Amino acid sequence: MFRRPNPVFSDEYAAIRNAIVQARRGAGVSQRQLAARLGKSQSHVVMIERGQRRIDALELMKMAAALSPEPLRLLNQIWAAVKDLERAG
After folding, report:
1. pTM of the entire structure?
2. How far apart are the C-alpha atoms of 49 and 56, rounded to whole Å?
3. Which of 5, 11, 61, 89 to pair with 80, CA 20 to 30 A apart?
């Protein structure tokens, strides 16, 4: 039986994870601090950043808001990275 690859390991998810890590570091926020802002455990953030846990749209929006006074900036960076992957194709 054919098994689909886990989307958490796709290039698109890597682009999301990379953008989150860059935004977090750029904001000078630790994983622990981000987790506290989200009301989650540090391991929750670690698992997202390592690609061990999927992130849904609502959680992504909350992370963007927790990292920046302009959350759309992060979402636009992710969108641009995904579009670049599609063009490279």
Report:
1. 0.85
2. 13
3. 5
